[in-house]
Amino acid sequence: MTHTKLLNDEDVSAFMDSAMQGPLASETLSAVLGSDEAKASWHRYHLIGDMVRSEQLAPCASELSFAQRVMAALPEQRPGAIDGSQWSPMPLPSGRRSANASGFWLKALTGTLCLAVLGLLVGGVAPWRASDSEKAAAIAGVSPAEKAPAVDVALEEERPVMARDPELDALLSAHQQMGGHSALQAPAGFLRNATFERSRP
Amino acid sequence: MKRAWVSLLLWACGLSSVQSQTAPVAEEITLPVWLQKVNSASRQRAYTGTFVVSAGNTMSSAKIWHVCEGPLQMERVESLNGPARSTFRRNEQVLTFFPESKVALSESRESWGSFPNVLKSSQGALEEHYQIRALPGERVVGLDTDVVQLKPKDNWRFGYRVWTEKKSGLVVRLQTLDPDGRVLEQSAFSELQLDAPVSMSKLTAMMNNTTGYRVERPDIHKTSAEEQGWVLRNSVAGFQSTGCYRRVVMLQAAAPQAGAEGSTQAMTQCMFSDGLAVLSLFMEPYDPRRNARESVAEPSGATHALGLRSGEWWITAVGEVPTRTLQSFALALERKK
Q1: Least Cα separation, residue A95 to chain B (angstroms)
Q2: DSSP code at position B293
Q3: Is B89 helix (H, G, I), strand (E, B) or coil?
Q4: Residue B308: which of B317, B300, B298, B297 has the closest Cα?
Q5: CB contact set of B245 (below 8 Å; sequence gap of 6+)
Q6: Whether pLDDT at A63 is above 80
Q7: From the CB of residue B44, how many other CB atoms can be counted at a distance below 10 Å?
Q8: What's the rounded Cα separation, in Å, for the pair A30 and B61?
Q9: Does the CB of A54 have a partner CB in chain B at under 8 Å?
Q10: Where does chain A have alpha helices with state H?
Q11: DSSP assignment of B184-209, as one string?
Q12: Residue B83's pLDDT is what?
């Protein structure tokens, strides 16, 4: 089946809100999976939703120009860093290592979201694109036409994109096969493991 | 002036709405009771839907069919991206068809029905290491859901946020959270039809039809760490051993058309769990051609991996836990003297 549906941010948002059902939902999902930009939008909207639901907002406020550079760079971020199974050999750290490979983007988006929230308090212009600003502002409950104060945000080193490792895939499969010891396996764990991509045997 | 007061009132209403969305619901809920409910939910209803797993910038999705009759449960998972594959489950029996290679992998997930024992053996540990908290309900995939947060009490394990359908307790969305509360991975239905007319006889017929496929079964035998000559000096609090297996892992599939021979490796796999999180330690003889460098990896969302050398052995730790937990286990493993 060929999917030629053209997507915009509103389509991704409507799909996320379950406003689409049946064949339209299936077509939209297929189009999302085939579009790096749509995947980025999907991820961005989920992060925004999670930030609103979180108990506390991350420490925020970003330099206005930095946030603008981040937003301009988002569509260019390399896709497919993780595709079900990728081995990225790196030296063992001496201290604790960040568990989230996409932490850089989360911090950047978190800072940008906080721009909008703080903008309500201090007044200013939010550095969002028009469609993103309206969507994010509606979720965060703030006006899009606000200005954010400026602070420094440390950048996390971007990880290299590595090819799949079939040997690690094999160990992952062996691990997932025996995952029934988790109390969450029956509800969703099995579906999660079966849905993740696996190398062909 | 009047317009200014109306604007102020609307803003105040919006702010209070946001606050009420984030205010916790004061509802008594215990972890064992909640786990019982979510584990029995899938045994009560048939459903179809689309399941999406998203981690970082990647997504995997599959169509799902689920049906149950008495003690028998069946599922069909049809991948929508990546290598084509169809996975069927009948209770603990799992058969995965790979149409491109015409291979059907047959597995017996003996740990599948172990939940009652998992709860019994780890109940104290679960409540000691996780705190359950009810959050405001939400509407997801057209269903009213209850939302809970399972917050770890230390940094040795991840937390979870779980959305369950109000009446049945069926999990419709599950997020894994790192110690800072960031979402590592989300598994969720993007479409769900409850009480769909799924035919168990049709699913059974599809699962039994292996015509044209080479059925392979993993070479796996139950054993013990001691029997294989291993001792764990210490363990992370809350984690218990849940089994040890001697198995042959296919590292590279054979590709006769490309002239490539497959490669396998005999390994010992020991598993540990705190009732929610699971990790595996794989032990094999050290091979400098393959085990080049001690390293860590995040192959998928919540799953982390770590490889390190221990004398003449190579240990790979894999699990849905922080890297420090994998490291602690791997470093605590040693050969019996």
Answers
A1: 9
A2: S
A3: strand
A4: B317
A5: A178, B220, B221, B222, B223, B268, B269, B270, B271
A6: no
A7: 11
A8: 9
A9: yes
A10: 9-16, 22-33, 36-53, 64-73, 103-122, 130-140, 166-177, 190-195
A11: EEEEEEEEEEET----HHHHHHHHH-
A12: 84
Residue B91: CA count within 13 A, CB half-sphere: 7
Neighbours of A51 (CB within 10 A): 24
Provide the residue count of chain B: 337
Structure token digits, residue B311: 């004398």
CA atoms within 13 A on the CB side of B130: 30
Residue B227 to residue B225: CA distance in whole angstroms? 5
Strand bridging mode B214-216 / B103-108: parallel
**Tokens 């909008």 found at:** A116
Tokens of A5: 């549906």
Helix boundaries (H) for A34-89:
36-53, 64-73
Q: What global pTM score does this model have?
A: 0.67
Burial code (b: 16+ CB inside 10 Å, e: under 16) for A93-120 equals: eeeebbbbbbbbbbbbbbbbbbbbbbbb
Please, what's the b/e burial string for B201-217 (b: 16 or more CB within 10 A of its CB; e: otherwise)?
eebeebbeeeeebeeee
For B85-115, write each residue's pLDDT tens digit.
999 999 889 999 999 989 999 988 765 555 5
Residue from B106, B165, B187 whose CB has the most chain A CBs within 10 Å, to mutate: B187
- 8 A C-beta contact, residue B82 and residue A197: yes
* Rounded Cα distance, A168 and B195, in Å: 38
pLDDT of residue B219: 85
Please state, in angstroms and as integers, the Cα–Cα distance from residue B240 to each residue in A83, B105, B119, following that order.
31, 29, 12
Q: Is B195 on the interface with A (CB under 8 A)?
A: no
* ipTM for the complex shown: 0.83
| Partner-chain contact A186 B112, CB within 8 Å | yes
Q: Residue B281: closest CA among chain A residues belongs to which residue?
A: A175
Residues 6+ apart with CB under 8 A from B180: none
Partners of B163 in the beta sheet?
B147, B173
B269, β-bridge pairs:
B245, B282
Q: At A61, list the tokens.
A: 């406020």
Contact A43 B56 (CB under 8 A): yes
CA angle B127, B133, B134 (to 5 degrees): 140
Asked if B249 lies within 8 A of A174 by C-beta distance, the reply is yes
CA atoms within 13 A on the CB side of B329: 32
- Of B83, B182, B251, which is closest to A197 when you measure between CB atoms? B83
Q: Is B156:B236 a contact under the CB 8 Å cutoff?
A: yes
| Inter-residue contact A81 to A101 (CB < 8 Å) | yes
